[in-house]
Amino acid sequence: MTLSVHTNDAALVALQNLNNTSSQLDEVQNRISTGLAINSAKDNAAVWAIAQGQRADIGSLSAVQSSLNRATSIADVAATAGASISDLLVQMKANVVAAMDPSIDTASRTAIDSAFKSELGQITQIVSNANFDGANMLDGSVSQIKFIANANANGFITLSSQDMSLGGSIITVPSTASLTTVTFATTVLAQLTSSISNTNEALGNLGSQSKAISNHNTFVGQLSDQLTAGVGNLVDADLAKESARLQALQVQQQLGTQALSIANQAPQIILSLFK
Asked: Of the residues 59, 61, 79, 171, which has the maximum number of CB atoms within 10 A of its CB?
């Protein structure tokens, strides 16, 4: 080996090794601080691109869940209101049957008719108030509402309305119904019996749709969890492994520093040749 004051090959090699160790140490420290083995495209362009695509899908599924949660709330409000209406219809039947008694006096019939009309008003009030976030499934204002069901927003799940307005196809009893005569009460009884059956069927349909929405929401949540786990498998750092690497690289860095120091002292040998 040529001794020279201009070129110190050993020092250059030691410096290269020290720089390489420092670079690896920075990489390990970055993985430990972020928890990610693939933190940017320069770490691994292909894996990073796949992970970003999956993250986009996870974000889209969050929007899907928000839409389905809104659907669930709308359906729950409608179902609760519908159940209250069903209870009122059952109570009203007792008044209607009582009004069919030809033996009651005018005052009693008037009282029964007043209570009956009050219950009709309550139904109208319930239907009007069965509103969530501007959507009412019981007043006939909409026929159905679609909610997004997938990350591409090209699939939908539908919630159909159940119009429970008085005088409609479900509650056939009109808002002007009266029990002031036995004849009127007889007509109302037929309408009321049909309305009770129709209302229960409508609530069953609403419940089935609500259950389907809930099941799909559960699936979307599970899918989002699996995608999140998949992204983690691609980009997450093994911190136990990185901790071991950190210890090893720190030792290498110290040794590299000492090796460079020793190599830098080599030209001192030349001075001894000229004593």
From this structure: 171
| Cβ–Cβ under 8 Å, residues 237 and 30 | no
Q: How far is CA 30 from the centre of its chain?
A: 32
Residue 25 in tokens: 């140490």
Give, as one character, the DSSP assignment of residue 157: E
Of 8-17, 103-112, 121-130, 227-236, least confident by mean pLDDT is 8-17
Angle between helices 45-99 and 106-129 (to 10 degrees): 170
The per-residue pLDDT for range 126-160, each reduced to its tens digit, is: 999 999 999 999 998 999 999 999 988 899 999 99
Contact criterion met (CB below 8 Å) for 51 and 231? yes
Residue 177 · residue 170 · CB < 8 Å:
no
DSSP lists the bridge partners of residue 135 as 132
CATH topology for the 76-234 domain: f41 fragment of flagellin, N-terminal domain (1.20.1330)
The CA distance from 111 to 107, in Å, is 6
Q: How far apart are the first and last CA of the chain?
A: 21
Q: Look-up: residue for tokens 């005052």?
A: 107
Q: Where are the domains of the chain?
A: 9-35+237-272, 76-234
pLDDT band at 5, cuts 50/70/90?
low
Which phi and psi angles does 152 have, rounded to 5°?
Answer: -90, -5
pTM over 0.90: no
Instruction: Mention every residue, 6+ apart, whose C-beta is less than 8 A from residue 59.
Output: none
Residue 51 has pLDDT above 70, yes or no: yes
